[in-house]
Amino acid sequence: RHHDDHIALVPTMGSLHNGHLSLVNLAREHAERVIVSIFVNPTQFGDGEDFDEYPRTLDRDTRRLKNTPADAIFAPDVDTMYPFGLDMATRVSVPGLTENFCGASRPGHFDGVTTVVCKLFCIVQPDCAIFGEKDFQQLVAIRQMVSDLNFDLKIVGMPIYREEDGLAMSSRNRYLTSDERKAALCIIKSLKRAKALFDTGEREGKKITGEVKSGIEAEPLSRIDYIKICDAGDIQDIDQITQRAVLAVAVNVGKARLIDNV
Ligand code: PAF
């Protein structure tokens, strides 16, 4: 590495799919060196969540990163990241932005995310880091953390990468049976209907979320966690869309908790 090379970090939990590889390609546009971290972070999983089942495929991931090349992979184990145990570890917490949406359904989740991402930034010392917009609340919280803790690095968001039929790519899609995989399409179909409603001029949040709700409820294999519209900046609920806003959903299909947004 030349001393003036820039480093882009792509933080992941592994089980790499094409969405991740698109992040790696984007990273290439921002820096001469690309580092991919692979770490299934225990502090961001709650009791009863899928930490144990979460797919761990390091050999396969390494092979995939030969074709979409990364300069280095950082794949620490839990003891390296949390040598004094999970309960004793210092936490980094971004209040406010992390209470609504997924923060309400998954208490403690975002503290785990910002803690591990902060540690990854300190270890890797990147000039920029790439995150997917599927986890838009995570992206907003990380931007806030970077600003609050005076990290000297740029955060880049990458638009949601979708399967051909529209399902947002996620490592959790592999939990779906083939029937559930078909059922999961109710999410993008309903989001598209909501977007069309918005494009015709509808600005009342309840009308738009109602459209999504009926579309997802019509699919018997799905269970809605939330459907909400919020201000894209501060993640607070809004009733009328008069500013940049995000419509976000979390839906359980079989064992998978799927999130998506427009
Ligand atoms: O989005 C993810 O995969 C994770 O939340 C992250 C950012 C790698 C932190 O563990």
Distance between the termini: 39 Å
Principal-axis shape: globular
Order of strands across the main sheet: 3-2-1-4-5
Number of helices: 9
How would you describe this structure to a colleague?
36% of the residues lie in helices and 19% in strands. The protein contains 9 helices and 8 strands. The chain has helices at residues 18-30, 58-67, 78-81, 102-105, 109-124, 136-148, 178-183, 185-199, 205-217, and strands at residues 7-12, 33-38, 72-74, 128-132, 154-158, 222-231, 245-253, 256-261. It has a 5-stranded parallel sheet with strand order 3-2-1-4-5, sandwiched between helices. Helix 5 packs across helix 6 (136-148). The longest helix has 16 residues, at 109-124. Pantoate (PAF) is lined by residues 11-13, 41, 44, 113, 116-117, 135, 138.
What is the topological layout?
Elements: E1 7-12, H1 18-30, E2 33-38, H2 58-67, E3 72-74, H3 78-81, H4 102-105, H5 109-124, E4 128-132, H6 136-148, E5 154-158, H7 178-183, H8 185-199, H9 205-217, E6 222-231, E7 245-253, E8 256-261
Parallel strand pairs: 1-2, 1-4, 2-3, 4-5
Antiparallel strand pairs: 6-7, 7-8
Residues 11-13, 41, 44, 113, 116-117, 135, 138 line the site of pantoate.
Could you give a quick summary of the protein structure above?
By secondary structure, this protein is an alpha/beta fold.
